[in-house]
Design goal:
Elements (H helix, E strand, L loop, with lengths): L2 E6 L3 H11 L4 E7 L4 H10 E2 L3 E2 L4 E4 L2 E4 L2 E6 L16 E4 L7 H9 L4 E4 L8 E2 L16 E3 L3 H13 L1
Parallel strand pairs: 1-2, 1-8, 2-7, 8-9, 9-11, 10-11
Antiparallel strand pairs: 3-4, 5-6, 6-7
Amino acid sequence: MSIRVGINGFGRMGRLGFRAAWSNEDFEIVHINEIKGGSKLAAHLLEFDSVHGHWDPAIEADDAGFSVEGKRVTFTDKATPGEVDWASMGVDIVVESSGQFRTPTLLQPYFDSGVRKVVVAAPVKEGALNVVMGCNDDLYDPNTHHLLTAASCTTNCLAPVVKVIQ
């Protein structure tokens, strides 16, 4: 059984996360929430990235979402996480990549709607396990850590170098 994933914020980080996770059988991306542009623009930007180039899977879009290789991904354009009914879509994990929700209080609506885990693609200063892969990912305990952050780009660049130096 795959883990059902929702993405809030479909800018650079959200789209790259989508591309990276799409072919992983452990994940099923089921929903995108993005306040700007709508589902057709989101699908277009997913397919044609200005830095990473064209993404090969077939993508078709309509006003309610888009399909990648025939697999449907629903779409909403709500301003806050609490406005999205993540539970009705069976979302287990949300990747919070909007950059706007970075405190436990602002992230609580995800948990209130039934989401089990939230991974924030930006620093969260308190209440979250700050994970840098290859440096401290061994600290993650799935039974106790439900709010995670992938740290900042600076931390992800600097921490592995410091670990080697130490």
